[in-house]
Specification:
Pfam families: DUF6428
Radius of gyration: 24 Å
Number of strands: 6
Protein name: DUF6428 family protein
Order of helices and strands: HEEEHEEEH
Largest sheet: 6 strands, mixed
Structural class: alpha/beta
Number of domains: 1
InterPro entries: DUF6428
Amino acid sequence: MKLSEIKEILPTLENVEFQLENGTFVPEHFHVTEVGSITKHFIDCGGVIRNEKAVNFQLWNADDFEHRLKPAKLLNIIKLSEEKLGIEDDEIEVEYQDTTIGKYDLEFNGKTFVLKNKTTACLAQEACGIPVEKQKVKLSELSSNPASCCTPNSGCC
């Protein structure tokens, strides 16, 4: 989800709710302790230099169980970060500590924001010797067009 998308959704909500992909909700007394821009400048294992940018939201649970973040407040935090930090309309990455700090992509299911598990991947599989996955074809689905195959005495072999 891009920053512009959450800015469109927030005014339509009464409450801000985050849910993990497994269905567990982030406790409703969470705080958004950071909104920022993260730039990752790196080289992959194939030698390609890459740049990635994301808008970072950090969620945190405190002992103030009566705290509730309202949509207007989060929208104001986002607008302030755009003004003061020059944050652009990039994809949102959410940091949230469950058993360890996790990084999540963000989606909206019509009611709650869903923290989608991120995974690692090799960006240069050909350089690592990882074979490209072969296309699986059922032999029964191969063309049975006689013009597309050789026949005895056709001269194609």
